[in-house]
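Human: Respectfully, please carefully check these tokens:
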Amino acid sequence: MKKLLIEHTENQTRTAITENGKLTEIYIDKKDASLVGNVIVGRIKTIMPGQFAFIDIGSNKNAFANFNVSNNYKAGHPLLVQVQKDATSSKGAYVSTDISLKGWLVILHKQPPGEVGVSHKITDEKESRRLKTLVRSILPKGYGAIVRTNAQSCAQDALEEEINKLHQAYEEILQRAQYALPPVKLYPHIEIPSILADIVSEDLDEIHISGSAEVFATASEYITGLVPSLAGRILNHEKVFDQNNIPKQIRNALEKVVNLTCGGFITIEETEACVVIDVNTGNNTGSQSYRQTVLNTNLEAAVVIVDQIILRNLSGIIIIDFIDMSRQEDKAALMAAFMQEAKRDRLNPEILNISQLGIVQMARPKRRLSLSKILEINCPHCGGHGKVRN
């Protein structure tokens, strides 16, 4: 059974997905912490050489953006932007002047106008052409769109309804932006986790929401607006995280070592430059040859590593040190399994082939802070080194 759990308190909103009781995804939005997807009228503070600017969006740190200086932007001017990446400890949020509104079926944008793209996950070329032609025929003038995977086999009525809804919201943003006093947020109007547009899907068996009556009504309205068929699956419960054993599973997701059922284990280290994941045979002596033991450990680790990358929201450069294998056919089998598992990741990481030393490198887009960076702070005694002087 697949569940979506939403727990809202005064200081934060936590959103989780579980499958048969196992936590597979967790998103924590502390109050005013994540701004990804927000559309804001900011004020340009500084324009730097090389089409680069700092913009006041109402946060502690000025955001930064790349844009064409030929548009006669000047310091002090208001600017309509959308947050693409949240701020980190070292720099402000990254924003763009290209605004896009995400629905369940399509993403509506203006740059470039008239262009329609289709998710590469829709591999049927005939269906891809049908969707592109259909969406192009109902797009408002001056707009473009990206057709999401969820739109596969979708009828015209559903696409048209969502595009009209997004178009109306977009036009309202543009109208309000003309009179807004920066910095001010214009979208979304309701306080709901921005991640919902990505994780809400028809295959959810139950949706549990914990919070005030207003929160329940707001979240329910948003979810059913995305996927109307979910209306009868939304339930109001108190302490849904405790009832589903989520706190313990979150604590486990912060551990450095993750045990494998075969007796092996993986270790996960987050550094400033990259994430390093190491696979070890541990107590897995195996009942077969050493070669088969290593291959089996690596294959199980491949599944668990993808699970952990998604669960912990690890991003940037990720280096995976699998147990060394000498035979090319074993390496090929491991890479095939790992690439297949990685298809579960909606962020579509870039993965390089396994090296002679058993190293796999991948680059995963940075959209949010990792679970560790949200919930943990550096040790005041060791400063984050993990060691203290004896």
User: Anything to note?
Assistant: The first strand starts at residue 2 and ends at 8. The CA atoms of residues 133 and 301 lie 43 Å apart. The two ends are 50 Å apart (CA to CA).
